[in-house]
Amino acid sequence: MAHWNPERLAARLPFLDARARLTAATRAFLTARGYREVETPCLMPAPGMEVHLRGFRTGFDPHLGQGEARALWLRTSPELALKRLLVAGAGPVFELARVWRNGEIGARHAPEFTMLEWYRPGLPLDGLMDEAEALVRTLCPPRVAHDGIETDLSLPFQRITCAEAFSRWAGLDLLASIRPDGSGDSAALGARADESWEDAFFRLLLDHVEPHLGRECGAFLTHWPAPQAALARRDPADPRVALRFEMFVAGVELANAFDELTDAAEQRARFAHDVAERTRLYGAENAWPVDEDFLAALEHGMPAGSGIALGFDRLAMLASGARRIEDVLWLAGYPYSAA
Fold first, then answer.
1. Which of 56, 157, 253, 264 is the most buried (most CB within 10 A)?
2. Is 336 among the domain residues?
């Protein structure tokens, strides 16, 4: 059935109306807490720095005598742009941002989707967990369910570290596999012969840990191992772990958050590693350079604080009872599907 078929839209309207109410309630929640809504560019010289994300490539082609031709990408997240605004003094800020990730499609994934991100200078990660829990509890019904898993949002969210989770459900000492320099020791993690440390970590996470998270109550998986720090600050009390959490509700991964790294030199080293790794794994055609302007902003000085990226379409699914992400999209599947 074509995406424009009236019957197809009519079947989704209850979910789409719920999404519209959710959008308004989200803005009300965050503005009441002192956040400023902003809009940042969708076209960026670097769409994001995560190794395994695939971007949509485009470019600027001047035809009125202004500017220079350059490669650009549709953003995979507004993170790097929003942090520039923190440096400029705009925070606390939030954005309901349209983002693009090439090749991602399924019941909970779409190549084009909406990310809710918010950042507050001076807010520690525990405070951000409190705020994210309050947002979900405020915006969703008291009980939400997805794919046979039901969560009671009146219950306090569980907070469990990655090390505790791996010990409890995988029977492994995760931190014993982290070297002093922050790299991972695959043998110490019990990796298979063809696995890197990262491959083994995610296999164990998906098979043994995530099935226990966000079931009877919501959950935060905290203190991620240092090789998965991304743009998070390492824990001063234990540099083997990063100050990062993911949030789970009804078995769905909803959000990823960092106590933000503000050290430009450390972030540059991480970015250089990520660029080399992405090129090695996916080829030069799927690589982009380090975002030098973002690093310049960090060098100027970004205030300490924390930030979070929440999959807004997934939140809309939980709030409305939708089974698939296409139920909360106005033109479901277009233009990625022939149907």
1. 157
2. no
In a domain, 35, yes or no: yes
Buried b (16+ CB within 10 A) or exposed e, 29-52: bbeeeebeebebebebbbbbbebe
Residue 337: pLDDT above 80? no
Q: Which two tokens stand for residue 299?
A: 């060098």
Which residue has better confidence, 211 or 1?
211
- C-alpha distances in Å from residue 329, one per residue of 12, 292, 334: 8, 35, 10
- pLDDT, residue 338, reads 55
Q: Does residue 38 lie within any of the structural domains? A: yes
Rg (CA), the chain: 20
* Cα–Cα distance measured from residue 296 to residue 83, given in angstroms and rounded to the nearest whole number: 12
pLDDT digits (tens, 9 = 90+) for 55-104: 999 999 988 778 889 899 999 999 999 999 999 999 999 999 999 999 88
Q: Where are the alpha helices (DSSP H) in the chain?
A: 6-32, 79-88, 125-139, 162-169, 197-204, 264-282, 292-301, 312-320
**CATH number (domain holding residue 234):** 3.30.930.10
Q: How many structural domains is the chain composed of?
A: 1
Query: Looking at this protein, which amino acid is placed at residue 181?
Result: D
- In this prediction, residue 144 carries a pLDDT of 98
Q: How far is 229 from 233, CA to CA, in rounded Å?
A: 7
Question: What pTM was estimated for this model as a whole?
Answer: 0.95
